[in-house]
Design brief:
The protein is built from twelve helices and seven strands. With 285 residues, the protein is of the alpha/beta class. Strands 3-2-1-4-5-7-6 form a seven-stranded mixed beta sheet, with helices on both faces. β2, α9 and β3 form a beta-alpha-beta unit. The longest helix has 21 residues. The radius of gyration is 19 Å and the shape is globular. The termini are far apart. 44% of the residues are buried.
Amino acid sequence: PMLAQSAHAAAEMSKIADMDVPSALISQGIPTVIAGALAVNFLADPERRRQEMTDAAGGDEMASVKNYFNGEGFQRWRKIYGETDEVNSVQKDIRDGHAVTVSKVLNWLDTSVTDKSVCDAGCGTGSLTIPLALKGARVSASDIAVEMTKEAERRFEERKGESAKAVAPVFDARGLEDIEGKYDVVTCLDVMIHYPQDKANGMVKHLASLANEKLIISFAPKTLYYSTLKRIGELFPGPSKATRAYLHAEEDVERALNEVGWKVVKREMTATKFYFSRLLEAVPM
């Protein structure tokens, strides 16, 4: 039953990371959360808050995302995707879930990535970029936020001595739509959550156009179950602001790939208490 399973996927990742949900509610499960949500719903309007962020960026939603991840969002996600103990249980769970997704990608690519050109689109703090570079891949790592690329570069410099095969990535602050070139492999993990479906379709096609051999992409799947839990999470916005978050139906993502001559050959799902991500590998038909 949905409510009994709620402890395994209480809400979508970026909302939960910004939420200030009391631990008592988390431990008591969704029934208590729903009750609390109903009580505070009239006080919280997360959509209005995020629209205000977009308006402050001149109506450009991607500019709002950029501003967030160059500011308060950077500080939060640097901790989540780092090794510090200064994270709460929800943030730790998200860190662990994302690490599982990264591990799956590395297993898919294995040693075949050595000497390959890889575009890591939306590299964040380098969770995937760095291990790929240590395996000898020639990585072009980009992120919409310059603070993220600076942090990723700093972390690579700290770890480059771990492997004699390490190749320094080329870091660049740019959005997905601005990435150019051709690469053997293109990866894009947990980034589509910032794109509504109409833009996501075009973004998937654009990423495929950059890849010669394979495209690996992950996204928060749109199902009735996850959509319900995501909305519950939004009712506890906490004191900080967050960008909009979008779930995507797997069939829509796969259809976009098929329309440009690509097919899905591998699928994985990572689901922890507060993180869920569908992972696809696609190749040319």
